[in-house]
Specification:
The protein has one domain: Glutaredoxin. It has two helices and four strands, in the order αβαβββ. Strand 1, helix 2 and strand 2 form a beta-alpha-beta unit. It is globular, with a radius of gyration of 15 Å. Bound molecules: FE2/S2 (inorganic) cluster. FE2/S2 (inorganic) cluster binds next to loops.
Length: 94
């Protein structure tokens, strides 16, 4: 029964978590933005999959249904702080 409760709530875990939490939006709408490449960069850099902690337990990488940054695509929540990827391309001015 304890295992069922622990697996239901995302704030609980059956395995040790990383000290710093990186959360990306898991909503399909955000998948149309560059978020997949942002996620791929975190996965490659940390050498872990989504939902896992880094081997040194410094980082925890996971998804959330919404980061509350819907209007700012390619954003992540790192330790409860919003981090927004810079826009690609630039508007030219003359
Ligand atoms: S639905 Fe993705 S940030 Fe809100």
């Amino acid at each position: 029964m304890v295992e069922g409760v622990a697996s239901f709530y995302s704030s609980l875990s059956l395995t040790p978590k990383g000290r710093n939490t990186i959360r990306l939006c898991g909503n399909i709408v955000d998948r149309f933005s560059r978020l997949d490449s942002v996620q791929a960069a975190f996965v490659a850099e940390l050498g872990i999959k989504m939902g896992q902690a880094s081997h040194d337990r410094v980082f925890q990488l996971g998804q959330t249904p919404c980061t509350d940054l819907c209007d700012q695509a390619d954003a992540a929540i790192i330790d409860d702080k919003a981090v927004i990827a810079p826009a690609t391309g630039s508007a030219s001015s003359s």
